[in-house]
């Protein structure tokens, strides 16, 4: 059996943990924080388009913090599905070093954004970094319930941070192939009996794939958060032509200037603009986090591509304005979070 430690059992992470265990090739230790006690006692209830109704399910092991993960286990994969906020990632590194065995463990980042791999690649030069993009409609509806409405489509590829010394390209590729194989084993019922469209695919160029997803995340995700409206409402509003399409084209221009134009063609842009019906009630992750009062993945979704835009001399009037608006929203969220922590500390 493969040993997996999964950090971030929210909507995406809980489904990933379930799939990995369903493969019957993995024992998953899931790191839970605020919901540890209730899941430890009652397990998860999952309503899934891929897996049907799952009741009272628990991973092989649940623990309340990363620092409490068993260190006598040699982990094959450490899977990170938390929101990608730079400060949070940096805080994980000391505990991760206790769990990562050089030349055995692979780090799997199933997270949004651009250039997210660099900090961990620097901290773990002898560890394969597998970069993952999840296209999945899955969210928590209570501390122990998950609603999963869109098929689990995962793209995984090696982030080639070292080639041959100290880590060979073939080693990194084989680690990605193994993860894809195991994940698909866990999806086999969804693929055959349910024909849900769920799949895990090995991505040859994961950076190009990240730019492709950023077309959607950097436009729909951010604008829906600024306007506080679901995807369908944005598409039926005047903002479709004045905000959404210009933002998407700015992202395509940045990515093209960075050398990834083949992933950001006019056909791709038009598909993303017209593929979703105006009746869609889907609320993107950034809007959901905002409504819950949680920090936003602003730096990796907009900050990173805007830095590339400045380097390449690409003009981004719409994206820059959206970014500045969301920076104020983020400031407000962090300020409120700080106040709540202060009140909690006074009451203890």
Automatic annotation (TrEMBL):
Q: Which SUPFAM superfamilies does this one have?
A: 6-phosphogluconate dehydrogenase C-terminal domain-like, NAD(P)-binding Rossmann-fold domains
Q: What InterPro entries has UniProt attached to this entry?
A: 6-PGluconate_DH-like_C_sf, 6PGD_dom2, ApbA, KPA_reductase, KPR-Related, KPR_N, NAD(P)-bd_dom_sf
**Protein name, entry field:** 2-dehydropantoate 2-reductase
Query: Gene3D superfamilies attached here?
Result: N-(1-d-carboxylethyl)-l-norvaline Dehydrogenase, domain 2 (1.10.1040.10), NAD(P)-binding Rossmann-like Domain (3.40.50.720)
Q: Which GO terms describe its cellular component?
A: cytoplasm
Q: Spell out the PANTHER family in the cross-references.
A: 2-DEHYDROPANTOATE 2-REDUCTASE-RELATED, PROBABLE 2-DEHYDROPANTOATE 2-REDUCTASE
Domain Ketopantoate reductase C-terminal: start-end pairs: 205-330
Instruction: Name the keywords, alphabetized.
Output: NADP, Oxidoreductase
Biological function:
Catalyzes the NADPH-dependent reduction of ketopantoate into pantoic acid.
Per the record, what are the reactions this protein catalyses? (R)-pantoate + NADP(+) = 2-dehydropantoate + NADPH + H(+)
UniProt similarity note: Belongs to the ketopantoate reductase family.
Q: What molecular functions are annotated in GO for this chain?
A: 2-dehydropantoate 2-reductase activity
- What EC number(s) is this enzyme filed under? 1.1.1.169
Q: Which GO terms describe its biological process?
A: pantothenate biosynthetic process
Q: Taxonomically, which superkingdom?
A: Eukaryota
* Enzyme class, broadest EC rank: oxidoreductase
Limits of the Ketopantoate reductase N-terminal domain = 4-159
């Amino acid at each position: 059996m493969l040993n997996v430690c999964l950090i971030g059992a929210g909507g995406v992470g809980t489904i990933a943990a379930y799939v990995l265990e369903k493969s019957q090739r993995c024992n998953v230790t899931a790191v839970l924080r605020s919901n540890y006690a209730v899941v430890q006692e009652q397990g998860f209830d999952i309503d899934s388009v891929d897996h049907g109704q799952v009741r009272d399910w628990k991973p092989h092991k649940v623990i309340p913090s990363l620092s409490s993960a068993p260190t006598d286990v040699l982990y094959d994969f450490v899977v990170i599905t938390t929101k990608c906020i730079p400060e949070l990632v940096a805080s994980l590194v000391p505990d991760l070093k206790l769990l990562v065995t050089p030349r055995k463990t692979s780090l799997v980042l199933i997270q949004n954004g651009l250039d997210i791999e660099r900090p961990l690649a620097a901290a773990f030069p002898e560890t394969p970094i597998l970069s993952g993009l999840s296209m999945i409609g899955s969210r928590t509806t209570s501390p122990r319930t998950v609603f999963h409405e869109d098929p689990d489509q995962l793209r995984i590829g090696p982030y080639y941070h070292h080639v041959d010394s100290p880590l060979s390209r073939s080693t990194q590729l084989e680690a990605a192939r193994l993860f894809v194989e195991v994940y698909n084993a866990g999806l086999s019922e969804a693929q055959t009996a349910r024909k849900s469209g769920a799949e895990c695919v090995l991505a040859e160029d994961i950076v190009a794939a990240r730019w492709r997803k950023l077309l959607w995340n950097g436009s729909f995700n951010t604008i829906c958060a600024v306007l506080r409206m679901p995807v369908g409402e944005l598409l039926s509003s005047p903002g479709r032509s004045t905000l959404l399409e210009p933002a998407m084209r700015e992202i395509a221009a940045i990515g093209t200037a960075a050398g990834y134009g083949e992933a950001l063609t006019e056909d791709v842009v038009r598909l993303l603009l017209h593929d979703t019906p105006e009746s869609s009630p889907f609320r993107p992750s950034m809007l959901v986090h905002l409504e819950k009062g949680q920090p936003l993945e602003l730096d990796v979704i907009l900050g990173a591509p805007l830095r590339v835009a400045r380097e390449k001399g690409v003009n981004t009037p719409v994206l820059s304005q959206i970014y500045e608006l969301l920076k104020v929203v983020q400031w407000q969220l962090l300020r409120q979070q700080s106040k709540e922590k202060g009140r909690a500390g006074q009451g203890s």
